[in-house]
Batch of 2 targets.
Target 1
Amino acid sequence: MSKRDWHKLDESDVRVRPGKGTRPRSKRRPEHADAETAMVIGVDRGRWTCAMESGAVVTAMRARELGRTPVVVGDQVGIVGDTSGQPDTLARIVRVEERTSVLRRTADDTDPFERVVVANASQLIMVVALVDPPPRTGFIDRCLVAAYAGGLEPVLCLTKSDLASADSLLALYTELDVPVIVTRFDEEPAELRARLTDTVSCLIGHSGVGKSTLVNRLVPDANRAVGVVSGVGKGRHTSTQAVALRLPEGGWVVDTPGIRSFGLAHITPDDIVKAFPDFAEAAEECPPGCGHLGAPEDPSCMLDELVPDAPGRLTSLRRLLASRAGLDDYTD
């Protein structure tokens, strides 16, 4: 058509190609009905080590449709692809099941970003030495807070009892009814072993408290197992990562690296109080924003008035609340 004929065109003669944004897109995602269930036992730089129900240990990557969905040790996941566990094979994680519990922490009390350390553990084993290094009650309290808020049962495991008495430390936690296991270097941890059997439990503690010694006794081939997991991460050893180890008697123990800080910025006072049924109902009568610390910080707190028959337990609860508020004796 010549330029002289352009004036003869009208809008019915114009053909407009639809842009990409106008094309209908399906939001349907693959259901992966054939996905096999596995437990994540190690994580390292974009690769996940997973234990299949068949017993095979599989290396997997996160499927694209999961986006940035966090996948941590202890997660129950759905896996497709090569699940044989043979060398140089790679499967895909296509689904992360709902978690029954989470152990979270932040780098410090001002850090807004929480980190999930372990998922689906039923117990948090707080490994504390009675001497060398000396026990830090602030650290224990913070672990208790994280356990109560995350749905884990806390258990206090005291090591090096052949060097110091546990009586004074245990007196601080009598009112909380926290199970206690006392171990010593020259004896097998039989009570702890029985406690861990057929469960998923997480061990946490400072460096030097004897946690590695306990793990090596509980899982005789722990060093070999950790080596298998580290191979997934292109050669880096996993001493700085949580790793789940299968117990010979059944169950799993999640060994976490020695930590220097345990921030609780993600936990509110009400999260802690909810773990204590005898206080939770009374706390509903407190004014909004109450930290439940009592006077002088919270002079209008109703816990003193409504729960007068449990002064020792209330004192223990408020010590945990003070820990969460950063008013404890905890230091790195």
Target 2
Amino acid sequence: MRVVLAEDLFLLRDGLTRTLREHGCEVVAVDNGPSLRQVLLDETVPAPDVAVVDVRLPPTFTDEGLQAALEARRRRPGLPVLVLSQYVEQLYANELLAGGEGAVGYLLKDRVTDTAQFVDAVRRVAAGGTVMDPQVISRLLSRGEARGTTDSLTARERDVLELMAAGRSNAAIASTLHISESAVAKHTAGIFAKLGIGPSADDNRRVLAVLAHLKR
């Protein structure tokens, strides 16, 4: 798997590069926005399997990384992008999801200290999946516009919804919440009914449907 990694902090960039290489990835690491654009938009080489991108990169330290990733997705539709951020920045999450396609992720940097979780997220996004940090999901759930519908959910349904929107399968949700898969299926049906979303057996479409509804 070919990975482009954009991170300006040397220790974090070096650590993530080593981790990915230890798990069999070929990594091209850059530390600023212009270099990231050059690598992602170079049509003389195949597109990477996934781009792991810090939102804030030199020289502006605003949204240089995100904008480079979005431009690359416009030029190379479907390019998998996993965004890293220090904080929950809802605007950036919305921009990333605006295309309504999979192969996207948004993780807080705190999560990358868990090697297994980070590598799993990279692989899932590279495979076309959607991975969202639980804190981002919580922020979307708490938005005033969404409150009118999500207030009708029970506490357990909200737990299931957060895990569902984070890309977890029914089996993984059941294991995390210590309930049966049939109970998860029941809660999922209730969530879709209350949010007015058509059900889907495809995990990624299910995640995207929920996120699309919550970010309206």
